Amino acid sequence: MKRNKLVLLILAFSLLLSGCVSNRGLLSDLGVGGGSRQPNIVMILTDDQDLLLDSMDYMPQVDALLAKRGTTFSNFFVSLPLCCPARAMVLRGEYSHNNGILTNLWPTGGFAKAYTSGFEYNTIATALHDAGYRTALIGKYLNGYPNSDNLTYIPPGWDEWWAPITDSAYGSYDYKVNHNGVIEEYGSAPEDYITDVISDQGMAFIRQTTTVSPTQPFFMALNFYAPHSPARPAPRHKDLFPDVQAPRRPSFNEEDVSDKPPFMQTAPPLTEEQIQEMDTLYRRRLQSLQAVDEAVATLVQTLEETGQLDNTYIFFLSDNGFHMGEHRMLSGKGMPYEEDIHLPLVVRGPGVRKNAVRDDLATMIDMAPTFAAIAGAQMTNSVDGRSLLPLLGIRWPGLDWRNSLLLEHYTAPSSEENKSMSESLEPPDPGDLQQETLAIQLPDYAGIRTTQYKYIQRLGAARELYDLIEDPYELNNLWSSADPQFQAELTALLESYQRCVGATCRAIEAQPAPKFRLIAAP
């Protein structure tokens, strides 16, 4: 009986954190928001931006205007580090195994899967729209958008829509856009540079909304393409950082990969030519982010000029991370290692602690319930994540939080059609070409991440276990040295995660993580 009561308490508390119940009282109790007008919400989402390879060090406006004026999450993760699944998590607050968007490509993912499955009828956009918000998506949507037979399609819940309909948008010029149902074309002039255009469109939305509907709150997703390959910088930034190299972390071009999965053991050491190409891409990525950094300054200035800054929450994050040479892997994403799953997240807004850092485990599925909590909106799907509001305020004592989170990955069906489709949707990363050259497939994996360790279970017999405190670069796979009982507990916990839905996911997270135990020195 006592155990049943405990489970019920955990589930009830999880519902509160998830944003699935009324959050206006919670918002008030935390000392954030307030007043008769609901707070505005702006999400700045970059594409493939790393955290651990120092890109944030090259964004002074983000640091000065967001980090020093808000809270930075040092343990923010994405459970599936791939563009479309990550963006689906933002929209629905669900793990990929629950929202059904597993890859970038049909039939297991991409925009086509979201469209045909009805995914778009229950998102943070529809929830906020129903709660009285004016909503806008400006920039990149789900991979593969739109369907070729309906180029002016606008998903439910969005009042303002500006989204490219051609893959040339990744190259920053010569792209077409669906702007509120009208196709617009952009050329190759400096003023057509896509990061600047996205910024301009966003500021126009704010000014129009505050002029036409001054009492209506707004939500804006400002979805930049930078620094995704080919990472083309604005002309004004193309000569910056001439001597900068990709970081040489201890895992860079790792000397011994014999403890890694078999498919990784086939990768030869990186050549000097490959390393030089990586350095060039790294500089381009930093250069391309400078326009995003400037856009952040423009956003804050626009909010201040329109009288909205003090009533607006700003979230800065990326959809997934990026590796560059770690464990001999050429530049890319989709791996379970820290470079790919560990992301930036900075939050500024009313009541948010300034120049603060939180080390609590947070993840991409928390974004939708957090936005819903701020707005007092109701998500109509089974949200897996939880609101981050209790971590942002200063009046929430004794908070219990998650002790672990799920990692998962799914390989897109292999076919010539899908290969052609993938290349047409976005430029391949060097890591994609490396896998093709080595004739290897990235095996599906699932895993668990805690503040101390990471467990990775791949298709077949490959298992990995890393002590992230003693071995933050994931050089030493300790699975063979793990206590058998610890191994069994990890396997059981992962099986529970893979079946969880909604409140049961949060209940599993609330359990103490299995204690890290080895039977012998590695």
Please, could you describe this protein's structure?
The protein is α/β, with parallel strands linked by helices. The chain has a single domain (2-397, 404-510), classed as Alkaline Phosphatase, subunit A. It is 34% helix and 15% strand. It has helices at 2-18, 24-29, 60-67, 83-92, 96-99, 110-117, 124-130, 194-212, 262-265, 272-305, 338-341, 367-375, 389-392, 416-425, 430-437, 484-499, 503-510; strands spanning 40-46, 71-73, 76-77, 134-139, 160-164, 176-179, 182-185, 218-223, 312-318, 342-343, 345-348, 356-358, 362-363, 405-409, 445-449, 453-458, 463-467. A hairpin with a 3-residue loop joins strand 15 (445-449) and strand 16 (453-458). The radius of gyration is 22 Å and the shape is globular. Mean pLDDT is 90; it is low at 1-17, 19-26, 29-34 and 419-424.
Q: Can you tell me the CATH architecture? A: 3-Layer(aba) Sandwich
Terminal Cα span: 43 Å
Q: What class do helices, strands and sheet pairing give?
A: alpha/beta
Rg: 22 Å
CATH topology: Alkaline Phosphatase, subunit A
Number of helices: 17
The fourth-level CATH homologous superfamily is Alkaline Phosphatase, subunit A
| Strand proportion | 5-15%
- Provide the helix percentage: 25-40%
User: Average pLDDT value?
Assistant: 90
- Strand elements, count: 17
Uncertain runs: 1-17, 19-26, 29-34, 419-424
Main sheet overview: 10 strands, mixed
Give the count of structural domains: 1
For the record, what CATH class applies? Alpha Beta
Q: What is the spatial order of strands in the main beta sheet? A: 7-6-5-4-8-1-9-11-2-12
The outline comes out as globular
